[in-house]
Write a structure and sequence with these properties.
Number of strands: 15
CATH class of the largest domain: Alpha Beta
Helix content: 25-40%
CATH topology of the largest domain: Alkaline Phosphatase, subunit A
Largest sheet: 9 strands, mixed
Number of helices: 14
Radius of gyration: 21 Å
Number of domains: 2
Strand content: 15-25%
CATH superfamily of the largest domain: Alkaline Phosphatase, subunit A
CATH architecture of the largest domain: 3-Layer(aba) Sandwich
Length: 476
């Protein structure tokens, strides 16, 4: 479905019994609560309502039926920490110099040298929680943080850079289990291996405690990040499905993990109903980056975690806001994870005072109106990844997306293979580069990308004096 116009929204609203007057009343109520549910390493293909019936997500599907589904929503990075930083600040990872997962994994002998990037979100950055606190919101963080230079597994409450020092008053930090073979992090495949139940328990207690004032409940789930382990009976259920095939992205263990995540989302929506808060609560579901597996099988997209192709950064985004968002609606509004900050600030009535915030509010799209032209969105990933993806940058404007591969472009942008240009409307799988047939468009977008990197102070890669071709693919 394409982007909804004002007229089509009103038609949908009327069909749902939602009048313009009702919507106006909804927006004038007490400031809405915000529940933000962030999955880890969940690809768009792993949500049923996005077209893959192998993964069973009835609660997410219901959320989409009651709200709005975004078709062109992107994570600001193909790995976790930078995307989380973009959500918290509204700034591109390149501007923050947080461009890889913390602490990262250097490749000391690669062709290009990784920049000395930042390993924590600076305290001087104004976070989303601090902004919403200014508007009277109670702010709770439950789950994965991954925005300081300490491992979440050895989290110490109140240390600089932890959620308590970044605007959250009620905090639970969890860490994923270390591996399938160890229970060092308290992991038991037969009971809450990834702390999903624990995270939800704390979030529900927070919502109940603050039911009489606006709240921002941020749930950072560890699911579906590795290690792959979950309730045995659920794994067997998915293994018996005829569509089960790891090469097609239909992983039985991940299927069980996704279902457990979906059940916790069902607990959240039920609690909002039971507390009488559903009508005045915005529920947002998003993922931080693409799936670890299935680079070739995630049709219509190509790519995975660590990859600036669509499979690594094009995310599921579902928003339910009763009385404002038309049920069952969909938008093609181009959206990035940097947009959550200004959107929630506008909803809460707080001005964005930092003129280096990169995101734009998508409130108009949520209302079903045609949003203003936001211009292009950008990515900068000056890192090597263990999956074998080379360092790269990208820009999308309209239907065109350009990827720059830094190992080749350092020899000059005209180097064969340095630039890849795709028409995402005609070729969503990014199989046919148009860089050679549309050289002017490729050059135009590359110039935009280079100018953006300069404007935000992105850290560029240079030649590595320690380059050793025999050891280039080996991380530390």
């Amino acid at each position: 479905m394409g982007m909804m116009t004002r007229r089509s929204f009103l038609a949908a609203a009327a069909a749902a019994g939602l009048s313009a007057a009702a919507r106006a009343r909804a927006e004038k109520r007490r400031k809405p609560n915000i529940v933000f549910i962030l999955a880890d390493d969940l690809g768009r293909h792993q949500v049923g309502c996005y077209g893959n019936p192998f993964y069973e997500t009835p609660h997410l599907d219901a959320l989409a039926a009651q709200g709005m589904k975004f078709s062109d929503a992107y994570a600001a990075c193909p790995v976790c920490s930078p995307t989380r930083a973009s959500i918290m600040t509204g700034k591109y990872p390149a501007r923050l110099h947080i461009t890889d997962y913390i602490p990262g994994n250097p490749f000391p002998f690669a062709k290009l040298k990784t920049p000395d990037w930042r390993k924590e979100l600076p305290l001087e950055e104004v976070t989303l929680a601090e902004t919403l606190s200014e508007a009277g919101y109670a702010c709770g963080h439950f789950g994965k943080w991954h925005l300081d230079d300490r491992n979440d597994a050895v989290y110490r409450p109140g240390d600089p850079g932890t959620p308590e020092t970044q605007g959250f008053s009620d905090v639970l930090v969890t860490a994923k289990p270390e591996s399938e073979e160890t229970a060092a992090a308290g992991a038991d495949p037969e009971y809450d291996a990834h702390h999903a139940r624990e995270i939800t328990d704390r979030a529900l207690a927070f919502m109940e405690a603050h039911h009489d004032r606006p709240f921002f409940c941020y749930m950072g789930h560890n699911l579906v990040h590795r290690p792959e382990m979950e309730y045995g009976e659920l794994v067997v259920k998915y293994a018996r499905k005829p569509e089960a095939c790891n090469t097609q992205g239909n992983n039985p263990v991940l299927g069980a993990m996704v279902e457990v995540l979906d059940r916790q989302i069902g607990r959240v929506t039920k609690a909002l109903d039971d507390l009488g808060l559903a009508e005045n609560t915005i529920v947002v579901f998003f993922s931080d980056n693409g799936d670890l597996y299935g680079r070739e099988g995630l049709k219509p997209f190509y790519g995975a975690k660590g990859d600036l192709h669509e499979g690594g950064v094009r995310m599921p985004l579902i928003v339910r806001w009763p009385g404002v968002v038309a049920p069952g609606s969909e938008t093609a509004a181009l959206t990035s994870s940097v947009d959550f900050f200004p959107t929630f600030a506008e909803i809460a009535g707080v001005p964005v005072r930092d003129d280096t915030v990169d995101g734009v509010s998508v409130l108009a799209a949520l209302r079903g109106e045609t949003p203003p032209d936001r211009g292009p969105i950008f990515w900068h990933y000056p890192h090597y990844h263990s999956l074998g993806i080379g360092p790269s940058g990208a820009v999308r404007e309209g239907k065109y997306k350009l990827i720059e591969w830094f190992e080749k472009s350092i020899e000059g942008p005209e180097t064969p293979g340095a630039l890849a240009l795709y028409d995402l409307e005609a070729d969503p799988g990014e199989r046919n580069s148009l860089a050679a047939s549309l050289p002017e468009k490729a050059a135009e977008l590359h110039a935009r990308l280079a100018a953006w990197r300069k404007r935000v102070g992105a850290q560029e890669m240079g030649r590595n004096p320690d380059h050793d071709p025999k050891r280039a693919g080996r991380p530390n």
